[in-house]
Amino acid sequence: MLLLALAVFFAALSPLMRWYAFPRLAKIPANEYQTMVLEAKNATLLDYGSLKARTVPKVTIVQTLKGDVEASEKIEKTAGRDVVVWDGLSYVQGPDGKMVSRVPERYIFDAHTQEPVHATGETVDGDPVRRKGIEFKWPFLTEKRDYEYFDAQTRTSAPIHYQGTRTFRGLKVYYFEQTVPWTRVAMPKTMPVKGITPADVARTGTTRWYTTVRRFWVEPVTGAPVNGEEIHQEELRGGTLLGGRAKVTAFAGHVKMREDYIDHTVSVVKANRTLVLLMTSYLPWSFLLLALLLLSLSLYLEARATPQPVTA
Questions:
Q1: 172 to each of 22, 110, 223, 278, how far by Cα in Å?
Q2: Residue 34: strand pairing partners
Q3: Taking the CA of residue 24 as centre, how many other CA atoms within 13 Å lie in the half-sphere pointing to its CB?
């Protein structure tokens, strides 16, 4: 009887681990803090002194994500689910270490599904936004399909396309790609020239345009990108600021993650992948197998204990 009860217990525990425990335990921590460094070598960069584009050896982009626990807890009270609030900062600097652009973000999302949670404070560079789709991270158990991806420059979402399964640093990954066509975008609130504001530039009639090809290699169990690249271009167009020129390149380069950050990301993802697999595969199947073994053993012992009829 005890073996039969244990068999029923583990048979019930198997789906509970996958469909009840996993959604409640697999979450992005609210106090997450991470930094990523990307580089564009031999890039084109605008010299704001002469307003002429020049080739530079390297442009560096530092992306920081910091969780705001207090804000998360406040939003959770009305959202009715676990929420993560990330304060992001994309800081671009030239080869001389001087700031090229500085764009902050506040990204609010569901801790398990990564779906946006719309709340006060959801912004890009101080402008209120209402995100649709994902940003920075894919859902746990990423599927082989297209996803809506939010572009911070244009403040819009568009499909990022699944392009196949590949191997990256020993991991099976899904490759996604998105092309953002030339789009007019806002000037950064923090300009690279001291004393110049976006309003000052707007008065000259000069506008800023942007296009990019965005690439991600995503580990599907955790939904974490292990590598990312952008073929990025920005232009200033028209107006009196350019001195009669139709356009000038503000920045153009192939932006890639720095090697040491790729290595670190891969090692972290491998460790987290094992934890997710424990809840979604290893433990549920182990419990189910154990339940079948216990049931078989219970039936076998029951059969042996049954008295056999005596024949004359």
A1: 22, 25, 12, 17
A2: 65
A3: 6
Q: Are 196 and 202 contacting, i.e. CB atoms less than 8 angstroms apart? A: no
Element housing 267 (H / E) = helix 259-277
Residue 131 burial class via C-beta count within 10 angstroms: exposed 0-12, middle 13-18, buried 19 and up: buried
Whether 146 and 160 have beta carbons less than 8 Å apart is answered as yes
Amino acid letter, residue 166: R
Long-range contacts of residues 183-189, Cβ cutoff 8 Å, at least 24 apart: 183/153, 183/154, 183/209, 183/210, 183/211, 184/208, 184/209, 185/153, 185/154, 185/209, 185/210, 186/125, 186/127, 186/155, 188/101, 188/102, 188/103, 188/125, 189/103, 189/125, 189/126
Q: Name the β-bridge partners of 149.
A: 134, 158
Per-residue confidence in pLDDT tens, the chain, 312 aa: 677 787 788 888 888 888 888 888 899 999 999 999 999 999 999 998 888 999 999 999 999 999 999 999 999 998 889 999 999 999 999 999 999 999 999 999 999 999 999 999 999 999 999 999 999 999 999 999 999 999 999 999 999 999 999 999 999 999 999 999 999 999 999 988 888 899 999 999 999 999 999 999 999 999 999 999 999 999 999 999 998 899 999 999 999 999 999 999 999 999 999 999 999 998 888 888 988 887 788 777 777 776 656 555
User: 312: number of CA atoms within 13 Å, CB side?
Assistant: 0
Q: Which secondary-structure segment (H or E) carries 157?
A: strand 156-168
Rounded Cα distance between 191 and 100, Å, is: 8
**Helix, strand or coil, per DSSP, at residue 269:** helix
